[in-house]
Amino acid sequence: MLLLCQSVLCALAQYSVIPKPVAMHTGDGVFAIDNNTQLIAPGELKNEAAFLRQYVQAQSGIRLSMSRSATSNRYIHLLIDTAINYKAESYTLDITTKNITLSAHDAAGVLYGLQTLRQLIKGSAKTLQLPVCNITDYPRFAYRGMHLDVSRHFFSVDFIKQYIDVLSLYKFNTFHWHLTDDQGWRVEIKKYPELQRMGAWRDGTLIGHKKELPHTFDNKKYGGYYTQEEVKAVVRYAAEKHITIIPEIEMPGHALAALAAYPSLGCTGGPYKTAKFWGVFDDVFCAGNDSTFTFLQNVLDEVAALFPSRYIHIGGDECPKGKWNQCPKCLKRMKEERLSDAHELQSYFVKRVEKYLNSKGKQAIGWDEILEGGLSPNATVMSWRGEEGGIAAAQQKHDVIMAPESHVYFDYYQSLYPEEQLAAGGYTPLSKVYSYEPMASVQEDSIRTYLKGVQGEVWSEYLPTVAKAQHAIFPRLIALGEVAWSQQASRNYPDFLSRLRQQRTLLKKLNIATADVFDEINYTSTVKDNRVEVTLTTTLPNGRIYYTTDGTVPTPKSQQYSGAFTLAKNAEVKAVLFDVNKQYGRLFKQAFFVHKATGKTVTIKQQPIARFNTNSSALVNGVLGTTRYNDNQWLGFKGQDYEAIVDLGAATPVSNIKMNVLNYHWQKMWQPDHVQFLVSTDGIYFNIIYTANSFPVNGINTIEATFKAVNARYVKVIAKNKGIIPAEEYGAGEQALLLIDEIIVQ
Ligand code: TNX
Fold this sequence. Notes:
The protein is of the alpha/beta class. It has four domains: about 10-135, Chitobiase/beta-hexosaminidase domain 2-like (Chitobiase, domain 2, 2-Layer Sandwich); about 145-510, TIM Barrel (Alpha-Beta Barrel), CATH 3.20.20.80; about 520-590, Sandwich (Immunoglobulin-like); about 600-745, Galactose-binding domain-like (Jelly Rolls, Sandwich), CATH 2.60.120. The longest helix has 18 residues, at about 340-360. Ligand TNX binds near residues 424, 459 and 461.
């Protein structure tokens, strides 16, 4: 008898398939693969048959005998049947105790069925077993992508092939290969040998995070590139796995490596150097110079010949316009083409290149900045700065791929643990990736129809080694695989985690150094009557938490956590998690501040922006913001001032007020012009107690005023936004962000 697999059943180790299939019925018994098992497959499925044979042989030494039709009664049958499987990439997999039938819409569907089968196989040397079940499966999104930046750090062909293997395992069908950027040009272009000789190399690499000033470098020559022969081999390899590779050639910005090789392509003529650190650089391709377009067209000719993909990614992101505004050739172009500003010049640039690609039968994809100054007629938009760009593009009837940095940037921190491996910024835990629902705010089918799928990004600034890259990528990639493939209604995080834990053996076999402590301790807290109530959580089944609040490191002899506890004064909670009798994960530490404003009512004058916490209660919740700025503790104001009033409930002696601001120019987060603390007894007349106008720390600045105690019921805090980001700085001309956290009153 077959049972419909409810989430409880799917949690059974033997059915731990990711991404979760559309429907799965489980039964009793197993199919055993042995030396008498036949593999039946038509010639058109030769690659898929070979994939299964190799896998079975590597696992068990068993050699499946190949046949065009059944000559034994124990067989695995692969076939294409578009009548049963009428959706592209779909398959049905039927495992009985006697045989296995995998039928699919197309060869890709057969491979996906085999990837499912592979996750169901148990056993090793000599015998392999598959549990009886019947699966019907097809993808939710047609475009399921992962990106990799090989410019900031270079990854070997072997690594790329392994990446492709794992993409296929989790049913991705697109690999976006980010091949050029300021820090290195990584694809051989025969017509332009300087790209290999100069553009592929840099004189050194930044040590540490780019936010740490002054910058220091290792001064070691770094680089490399893929030859065209290597690229062709990778493209062939990917095709066997039904993965399309979309190459990215960045323009007009992120172009320093190309300019270092061919300085005449820049507005000033150089000299230029391949960048040694990360960011957005002012020198970009000159848009007034026709030879820039000749160069790019010649490059794209070679790229188009290497990659059969219909799509070529032409970047378009983060292109500063300062050089164009001073360049006679660019100004002349603007005049001739009647472009009103440099944004329209960027649009001209992208349109011109798109037109060329279209003439060669290719389509252009660009980052959402290609919307600025007018979208090219046929371009697909990859939305990275949130979803707004993607939604705007869909409204203009352009195809969209959602790749928002808020949810699917795997170069961001995956935990708040201070020991977490150095990352670009932000905080994107596994649960957040898993929760991603593209275009959730849009209901209209007429717009949603342009949403083609989702893509995760792996920018490699802080991923100099394979181990670091794998730690950042896994398991977040696996969560995105489920978002991209599985039905929205079947998404269930605990169920996913239970299946993910079962994937560890497979990941280990594949030599993937995944970040493995996704079940470790987290917390939530609430405030009540000048107390903080702390809840510790873990997703580890049967995990036991021990904790202290006196600063000592907990052991299994410390207090065992059994439910929320209350803090009546400042404390650092430390906690450890135990799985049977082994410690799991890292030491958890979180400071809580209990002060006179804790849990009191706050009103703020301006609505904070949605990118950060929008709830003013975060200002009095006893928890401070960290440098992982989207940790839900900061409030953000874009171009606007901040003014908050805390009502302490009754006249209270106050002698100290403290507050933090985050000063991260590399994130467009600017210190305010000044901060003022004021007090009042009636909420109408406020006295200024303190004014600060120096915030020298690159990072978190604490503003603290200690004064002779005054009686106050209301405490007001004012911070004046910097306003417009100054010239020469990242985001120049845009509105500065002001980030504020807890108002500590004592
Ligand atoms: C922004 S995302 C970039 C990349 C960086 C990344 C770091 C995008 C289109 N541009 O150049 O590597 O941030 O997170």
